[in-house]
Amino acid sequence: MDIFFSKINTYTKLSDESRKAWETILVAKTYKRGENFVSEGQAPKKVAFVEKGLFSQNYVSDKGEIVIKTFFPEQRFAASVSAMLSNTPSLFTITALEDTNVLEYDFFAFKRLATQHMDIATFYMNYMELHWIIEKEPLEIALRHDPAGKRYEAFAEKYPGLVKRLKKHHIASYLGITPTQFSRILFANK
Q1: Domain total in the chain
Q2: Is 130 within a domain?
Q3: CA 33, CA 29: separation in Å to the nearest integer?
Q4: Can you give the residue ranges of the Cyclic nucleotide-binding domain (predicted)?
Q5: Is the domain of 110 the same as that of 16?
Q6: What is the DSSP letter of 15?
Q7: Which residue range(s) make up the domain with 80?
Q8: What distance separates the 2 farthest-apart alpha carbons in the chain?
Q9: Is 105 helix (H, G, I), strand (E, B) or coil?
Q10: N- to C-terminal Cα distance for the chain?
Q11: CB–CB of 96/31 below 8 Å?
Q12: CA separation, residue 25 to residues 102, 105, 172 (Å)
């Protein structure tokens, strides 16, 4: 739990009272490789903090291809946030790419805590601003305008440890290209 609260403290300092309140809703769980944390069509209710392991968030395209939207490595929070905020079924599946140890909590219990503890509310606001606005906008622009090679360079810079952990088809799916196209990018960068 120390890793979890160390990460929380990078967004805002929690009081002991808030930490204890949050601890009451945390549950340790392990997802085996290939197991889903969230399934497409399911109304999700939980957030998972990845202590060890790796999740991908993906969907199936109209062509039946799996498209990876993002990865959740260690010290990231995995969730289908839009679905929870709108209380609708998830458009995505979140799958363990490795055996993954998490601390998970009920999102709606967390939101109740945020109404009772200002520092938890501050964490929530700071987290959403950073990951849903500051980080997300440039990614959306890059996906529409940057060539795949440039997107791969940005990915490798953002997630240097993941390049060795992921299969090539996972990275290709994230970049929105075929594995063959990705192999050409790797060959050109040698």
Answers
A1: 2
A2: no
A3: 13
A4: 10-113
A5: yes
A6: P
A7: 2-115
A8: 54
A9: strand
A10: 41
A11: yes
A12: 13, 6, 37
Are 87 and 47 found together in one domain?
Answer: yes
| Ranges assigned E (strand) in the chain | 27-31, 36-38, 46-52, 55-60, 66-72, 77-78, 93-96, 100-106
Sign for the CA dihedral angle at 9, 11, 12, 16 comes to negative
**Distance in angstroms (rounded) separating the CA atoms of residues 4 and 75:** 7
Residue 64's Cβ-side half-sphere holds a number of Cα atoms within 13 Å equal to 0
Q: Is the dihedral of CA 86, 52, 3, 104 positive or negative?
A: positive
Task: Output the tens digit of pLDDT for each of the chain's 190 residues.
Answer: 899 999 999 999 999 999 999 999 999 999 999 999 999 999 999 999 999 999 999 999 999 989 999 999 999 999 999 999 999 999 999 999 999 999 999 999 999 999 999 999 999 999 999 887 777 777 767 666 788 899 899 889 988 899 999 999 999 999 989 999 999 998 887 7
**Model confidence pTM above 0.70:** yes
Backbone angles phi, psi at 139, to 5 degrees: -65, -40
Residue 171 belongs to a domain: yes
Q: Which DSSP symbol is given to 13?
A: P
Same domain, yes or no, for 47 and 79? yes
Question: Is the same domain home to 100 and 158?
Answer: no
